[in-house]
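Budget justification note: compute hours in this period were largely spent on complex prediction jobs such as the one shown. Inputs:
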Amino acid sequence: MSSSLARLIQQLSAGFSNQAQAFDNPPLYAHILVKFRPLPQLAPGSLLLEQSYAITPGTPYRIRVLRAEQRDGALIIHNQALRDEQRFWGAIEDDERRQSIGAADLLPLEGCTYLVREMGEGFSGEVEPGCRCLVERKGSLAYLVSSFEIDPRGMRTIDRGHDPATHEQLWGSLAGPFEFERTHDYNGDIPPSWLEN
Amino acid sequence: MSSSLARLIQQLSAGFSNQAQAFDNPPLYAHILVKFRPLPQLAPGSLLLEQSYAITPGTPYRIRVLRAEQRDGALIIHNQALRDEQRFWGAIEDDERRQSIGAADLLPLEGCTYLVREMGEGFSGEVEPGCRCLVERKGSLAYLVSSFEIDPRGMRTIDRGHDPATHEQLWGSLAGPFEFERTHDYNGDIPPSWLEN
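Corresponding output:
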């Protein structure tokens, strides 16, 4: 693997919290936890993602398997859902259940791949163009406009939903991105083979 | 007191939570708790207000003493801060500390009075016009545009900060109002004299 890809995987393999932001800006930001943890049994670059409200860490509102890779010289992150995802709630901190995730459990999310570029000491990424990453919220369909920045200090994310017909913003915050600090380091879970050139 | 004012005080004297909204719309809404509880030792219509993140109920991010009254036929709610407010954190559930709040602890918030009108079975209110209800967030001054609706089922609130010079919205959600369900009833704390015509 290239050193850029290795560095991206290393920076992602961590736990994050926006506690400081939430407490500095009540009540505008929910306090949320985001964790990315390597899945060595799957293709290189595969990371389990769990996002939850801090108040209910055992019932994540989003669980995915991401896969970072370099293709034609560019960094991308594939986005995959999990079949019957409730089976894997909490797997981020449960070695046995995390190791039980197999390739057959993954459902590729078309149109939801992140395009990533290096930026300073870190990376920035956004969902590929095309308005094809559709998400449903309360029965209404929106396409996701999502971006992130990550570096050795932390991570910033912003998610917005737009109307597929009018492109009007349907949901998401005007208050700006979620701002996360690092709380956990999962670099010890990365198989050495993933980091070789 | 008029029956409208009595009804407003009765509908306000309660605890509220937006748990359902937060869990239905992750991660857009912080899960917050709002409680209004009568302060019989103060002027009629005085209610202690505490707002907190559900995850940290003991350290409210906002504590106020409101006072509902009828003036010239109109319903209004005065808005008052508390001197050294940390003394009263948690007083909403602590009878002794709640009863220790005296008139000398109150600081009127000029320009932040709510104008209230009856609406169906409930009431709606908004901060008086004039752009004078100034709040500071991270060193920047904004004027508050705040409104609420309350009825026997629940409460909806929306707060936004605007630039005093340009009137541009500085913070607040595009996602819409906080939507609260009732969790506590503090009508038993209302002195009967407050409800007489």
